[in-house]
Every structure is written in structure tokens, then in C-alpha cells.
Specification:
Elements (H helix, E strand, L loop, with lengths): L7 H4 L19 H23 L2 H11 L6 H44 L9 H18 L2 E9 L2 H8 L1 H16 L7 E6 L2 E8 L2 H16 L2 E3 L2 E3 L3 E8 L6 H17 L5 E3 L2 H23 L2 E10 L5 E12 L3 E3 L1 H10 L3 H17 L6 E5 L2 H4 L4 H12 L6 E6 H6 L1 H13 L3 E7 L6 H6 L4 E4 L1 H4 L6 H16 L3 E4 L5 H10 L3 E3 L7 E2 H13 L9
Parallel strand pairs: 6-7, 9-11, 11-12, 12-13, 13-14, 14-15, 15-16
Antiparallel strand pairs: 1-3, 1-6, 2-3, 4-5, 8-9, 8-16, 8-17, 9-10
Helix pairs in contact: 2-4, 6-7, 12-14, 14-16
Protein name: EAL domain-containing protein
Keywords: Membrane, Transmembrane, Transmembrane helix
Organism: Pseudoroseomonas ludipueritiae
């Protein structure tokens, strides 16, 4: 987009830059100038015609002749020419002022248009949507009709931006805007609210009309788009709120539709949901918990817990995995499954993990070598190009030897951006940090990734371990993963061990390490040191029973 909105320079009559070279620039008089000159000429003709009709010139001539002693010739000539010039000057200034007023009016109209419309799609923005919504709701009150608000969020838009670039993403948004405009009637409103979110306000006769419109929206967004030489398929989730059934206020109506949209996404995407009162309550509770989490991180309420990973052959600890726990002042102890997804959605996961790592590094630095810790990294963190430097700076700050730190990543997190993940891992590995592949077998398992990325260990997901002795397929799969790890020179760790018989079976298969409630649950820092000391002195239950 240029800085000259909609030909503003053209309306100001700016001249084009002269061509480069020896050819002299050709000056063209703008059409408006010729019109001004023609009006001036006509004005002069009219003035002379009136003066002639009134015999004004003859009367002035006779008067000067009768009073020659006054020497009025030069004065009369000056007054006539000066008066005519003053008329011409006044007329030109009036025309100039009129043009300036026109330019300012055009500029104000353009500024108003830009303030009320999305520049990319040309659709009304949120501000204009609320204005139009007030008018639409007022008309619906008078006529007794229903207004449906549809809040639309694209489902697979981010991969388009990441893989094809922002230009392709802009084209997708423009195409979505065109498709939505094609679904509504005159008087209905389609708006872009920002990012990949759109809204639609439409008068309907009944709730079934809103459902039919939502189905059409979902279907329109499912159809493929041609972006450059690529076929792109996205989709959308739709939340629906009705006036006057759900609320009497336009802004609240949009908020209700937004709440219903999140429920539609949670239900599996690519569908629609109507707003219900319980949704609003859940949304407010979620917003309240998010605010409490933000404050809790700052106050140090989210702390590291430590769960042992042991050598299956002797039951002695090799490292502790760091797990987050939230000590809420009045909700009590909150487990990660209840607040980590919230932190990711709210953009707090980086701040949360940073606080956990700083506390865990400080605790582990006081342990006797070679006690190590393992910390999980989220997919969002792996997309941060500065992650490696943050981790290394924390190690320097807390005094923890990099060789006593292991970072665990999931297969899906690595697959999101393989090149950046490899760059981050290589930087950390060069300083002595170990890297483990977590939940192996449940995500985007790839032998090429295992070979290309600098992993030291793979962790076998608990879903394969818990029924190892009862399910022959699980046993075969676990055995294959262990053989694969050994062939690549990787240590293997089994998660979710709760039964001594499962631990013995894993040891027979050649698994190196185990983790699970059989060896201990996650404990706070004050108990981790005592646990480590006890495990060092005597093997834990289930160890060394091949």
C-alpha cells in the first residue's frame, strides 16, 4: 500500500516528475486551470458589456474632459484597471479557497473511510460494525425481527502464513472477505475484526435462518482457494448469538458470538455453535483464571516439582524431570493440565517456563554432581530464535553446569519448524546441554528427524508402557523402539511405570531408564534432595528384576 490514499496526489493536481535525459519536460495545464481562465474571461466580457450598456466609459470620459484642471486621467485609469484587477484577484482567491475546501473535504472523507474500514479487504472494521449494528438492531426493534451475529475464526490460516508467506495470507483474507460478502443480503454487514477473525450481522426470521447461514459460511470457507500456483484449503469455526434472545446490546451480542465461537473450536473446528448462558460463565471464569495466573507467575506461585528418572538396572536416579505446579492462594494445588494450556493461549508460556527454569536451575545447582534435571519445552518456545541464548544465560546466572541439563521436546514441536529447532539444539549441544525426544511414537515420528537432529535420548510414551504385558502389540512396538534407539546410539526411557512387572519386562527388553509412580511422584524442591539421597543409598522398588 502506498502513502497516497486513493489518488490523493492526483486530486491535488501534482505534476509528474520529468523524464530523465536531455528531453525538456512538457508542461500540461490541468483542466481546472483552463476552466478558471475561461470564467475570468467571461467575467471580464460581462463587466465590459454592462459598462458599455450603461455608457459608463463615455460618462467617465466626459467627466474628465469637463474637469481637465483636476488632472483625473491617470487616476481614473488607475481606478478602472485596479478595480478590474481586484475583481479578478478576488475571483481567483475565491476559486482557490473553494478548491482547498474541496481537497480538505475529500481528505476528511478518505480519513473517515480508512478509520472505519479494513485497508486489506475493504470491509468495515470493528468500529464501523458496531455503528452499523446499532442501526440494524434499531430497525429490528421496530420491525420485531431477529438479528444474528456470526463470529468467524479461520481454522488453518497460520500454516498458510508460515509456509507460503504473508502475501499469500493477505490473498486468503481478501478471498474470505469476498466469499462472505457473497453470502449476505443488502443491509446485512460483513466486517473484518483483525487477524483472521471476521463477523457478520444479518436480519433473520428465526433461529433456523442463523443455522442455515452458518452452514453456508462453513461450507464456503471449506472450499479450496487458488493462491498463486497453490491450492489452499482452510476452514472456519463460527459462533452465533441472537438479538433479542441472548442480549439487547450490540457490543454484548458480538461478545456472546465470540464466546460461542471458542466453543465451536473446542468441539473440533469446522462447525458452529449457538451461544448459551453457561458459555458466558465459563468464559468469565477462564478470563479470571488467566488474570490470576499472570499475577501468580509474578508472585512466584508457580514452582518446579521434581520426579525421578532411574536406571532400570539398579534403581538409582539418573536425573529429575522438572514439572510445574501452581500453588494458588485459595484454589490450592493446581496441576499443569489445568493451567499450561491456558498459559499457551494467553501468551504466558514463555514467562512461565522462564520462571520455572530459573527456580529449578538454582535448586539443581546446589545438588552434588552428577545429578541432572530435565525440562520440557513447548512448541511455542521452540519457535523463538532467541531460546538458546535465554537458556544459556539462565545457566550462567544460576551457576548450573550445562552438562547437568537436559531439554525435552515433543515430535510435533520439532516438526513445526525443523530448521529453527535444529539450529537451537545445535547451539545448546555445543555448550554441553542434552536433548531428549519426548512422547516418542505419538506424534510425527520420523527416522529422518531422529538422524538429523542431535538427540541423546528418546522417551517411550506411557500409552505403550502401561499395558506392555497385556497387549502383545504394545510389547512389540516398545521392543522395536528400544532396538531403534540403541542402533542410533540413543538412551531409551519408558514413561508411566507403575507396576514392578512392567519395569522387569522393560529391563529384559533392554530399556535403560524408567519414570513413573513406581519410583516416586513429583515432589517440591525441599523433598527432592532427600529423595535423591535415599535412592542413592538403596535401590527403589522394582529395580534390577530382569
Amino acid at each position: 500500500m502506498t502513502d497516497d490514499p486513493v489518488g490523493y496526489a492526483a486530486r491535488e493536481g501534482r505534476r509528474a516528475h520529468p523524464r530523465q535525459g536531455h528531453e525538456a519536460p512538457t508542461h500540461h495545464t490541468p483542466p481546472g486551470r483552463w476552466a478558471d481562465r475561461l470564467v475570468i474571461i467571461l467575467a471580464c466580457v460581462v463587466i465590459f458589456a454592462i459598462a458599455s450598456h450603461l455608457e459608463l466609459f463615455e460618462r467617465i470620459f466626459h467627466f474628465t474632459r469637463q474637469h481637465e484642471e483636476w488632472q483625473l486621467d491617470e487616476l481614473v485609469t488607475l481606478l478602472m484597471v485596479g478595480g478590474l484587477g481586484l475583481c479578478v484577484y478576488s475571483f481567483r482567491q475565491a476559486r482557490k479557497l473553494q478548491r482547498e475546501i474541496g481537497r480538505r473535504r475529500d481528505a476528511e472523507e478518505e480519513a473517515e473511510r480508512l478509520a472505519l474500514h479494513d485497508v486489506l479487504t475493504g470491509l468495515p472494521n470493528r468500529r464501523q460494525l458496531i455503528r452499523a449494528g446499532r442501526r440494524l438492531l434499531a430497525r429490528a426493534r421496530r420491525s420485531g425481527t431477529t438479528v444474528a451475529a456470526l463470529y468467524i475464526d479461520l481454522d488453518r490460516f497460520k500454516p498458510v502464513n508460515d509456509l507460503l508467506g504473508h502475501h499469500a495470507g493477505d490473498q486468503v483474507l481478501q478471498e474470505v472477505g469476498n466469499r462472505l460478502k457473497g453470502l449476505v443480503r443488502e443491509g446485512d454487514v460483513v466486517a473484518r475484526l483483525g487477524g483472521d477473525e471476521f463477523a457478520l450481522l444479518a436480519e433473520i426470521d428465526e433461529a433456523d435462518g442463523a443455522a442455515r447461514l452458518a452452514r453456508r459460511v462453513v461450507q464456503a470457507l471449506r472450499e479450496s482457494m487458488t493462491i498463486g500456483d497453490r491450492q489452499v484449503v482452510i476452514g472456519g469455526s463460527v459462533g452465533i448469538a441472537l438479538f433479542p434472545n441472548d442480549t439487547q446490546d450490540g457490543e454484548t451480542l458480538l461478545q456472546c458470538a465470540d464466546t460461542a465461537m471458542y466453543r465451536a473450536k473446542a468441539a473440533g473446528r469446522g462447525g458452529f455453535r449457538f451461544f448459551e448462558v453457561g458459555m458466558d460463565t465459563a468464559q468469565r471464569q477462564r478470563a479470571q483464571l488467566e488474570a490470576e495466573l499472570r499475577e501468580g507467575i509474578a508472585r512466584g506461585e508457580v514452582v518446579p516439582y521434581f520426579q525421578p528418572l532411574v536406571d532400570l538396572s539398579n534403581g538409582r536416579p539418573r536425573r529429575f524431570e522438572v514439572l510445574a505446579r501452581w500453588h494458588h492462594p485459595w484454589r490450592g494445588l493446581i496441576m499443569p493440565a489445568d493451567f499450561v494450556p491456558l498459559a499457551e493461549d494467553a501468551g504466558l508460556i514463555g514467562e512461565l517456563t522462564l520462571a520455572i527454569m530459573r527456580s529449578a536451575f538454582t535448586t539443581a545447582a546446589a545438588w552434588p554432581a552428577p545429578a541432572c534435571i530435565a525440562v520440557n519445552l513447548s512448541a511455542l518456545q521452540l519457535k523463538d530464535p532467541g531460546l538458546a541464548q535465554v537458556v544459556l544465560e539462565l545457566l550462567r546466572e544460576t551457576g548450573l553446569d550445562p552438562g547437568r541439563l537436559e531439554l525435552e521436546v515433543t515430535e510435533s514441536a520439532v516438526a513445526d519448524n525443523l530448521d529453527l529447532a535444529k539450529e537451537t539444539m545445535d547451539t545448546l549441544k555445543a555448550k554441553g546441554v542434552s536433548i531428549a525426544l519426548d512422547d516418542f511414537g505419538t506424534g510425527y515420528s520420523s527416522l529422518s528427524n531422529l538422524r538429523a537432529l542431535p538427540f541423546d535420548r528418546i522417551k517411550i510414551d506411557r500409552s505403550f508402557v502401561t499395558d506392555l504385558n497385556e497387549n502383545s502389540d504394545s510389547g512389540k512396538l516398545v521392543a522395536a523402539i528400544i532396538r531403534l534407539g540403541h542402533s542410533l546410539g540413543l538412551t531409551t526411557t519408558a514413561e508411566g511405570i507403575e507396576d514392578p512387572e512392567v519395569a522387569a519386562a522393560l529391563l529384559r527388553l533392554g530399556c535403560n531408564e524408567g519414570q513413573g509412580w513406581l519410583y516416586g511422584k513429583a515432589v517440591p524442591a525441599r523433598d527432592a534432595n532427600a529423595m535423591m539421597q535415599a535412592m542413592t543409598e538403596a535401590p527403589l522398588q522394582g529395580a534390577g528384576r530382569a
